[in-house]
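Model it.
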Amino acid sequence: EFLRVYPGQTNPKHYGTLVNWIFGGNDPLDGISIYDGGDFYHFVTYGLTELYEKQSRNTELSGYGYEMTLKLKKEGLEDEEAEIKNVCGILQTIARITFTKGECFFPNEFIRTGQTAGIDASQKSKITGFIVVTDPTVQTIQTFNGRVEFRELVGMTDAELKTLGSHGSVAEIYEKLGSDVTDYQRESIV
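Modeled.
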């Protein structure tokens, strides 16, 4: 699906795990690929779905039924490589919640990290958590192991997160934001 959106990017930047989760490793995702979206990097996880053989009994969904995505705005990044690795770490941490607690993240939900310092590598940003939306760039796909949706994390400030309490409030703030690209430089919209 990402090749449809980013034709020619057959070998995107990719970060894999050294020791897979099933062999006792700390990172539940097998890997994360990063596509060049022009003004942003588009991250996609590998491992919340069944990448190899079918293991779950649910024939409709592949694994948890989704992979996470995130679009990170390039402009203003002091150290691009550090920020890319940092986002990969964040995605692994969120996936770890799913693997250890069975908690899935659905569109119109929000994720508070519990921190007030920025989630960027230098902790200077006002972005401290996320809302979850259906990634508007890529489409749901059907695989041999079941359906795979792409759920995008969109960065939110602490002030924005404090206004959220329902699915409707998440949809409203997403519409007000007017973008699904996480921008570490932006100010709060509330």
